[in-house]
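hey m, so remember when u said the tokens were messed up on ur end? i reran from scratch. heres the input so u can diff it against urs
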Amino acid sequence: MAVMPEGRRFKAGEHNYAAILTPELVRKLRQLQREGWSYRQLAAEFDVDEKHAWRICKRIAWGWLDD
């Protein structure tokens, strides 16, 4: 985990103040990708960047979350 100023740690997932997605939405995004949706389609559907959709599907982001 990245260390934030004043000793605070970065909060992962929905606990991050800037989080858009919830665990349920991440699971749905991954399911749609397995069904053949493109990263562009996923990005538009979930209001995230294409690269972030890719990172979620490759488990670089939200990697701790089981499907």
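this time it looks ok to me. Confidence is low (pLDDT under 50) at residues 1-5. if urs says something different then somethings off w ur setup not the seq
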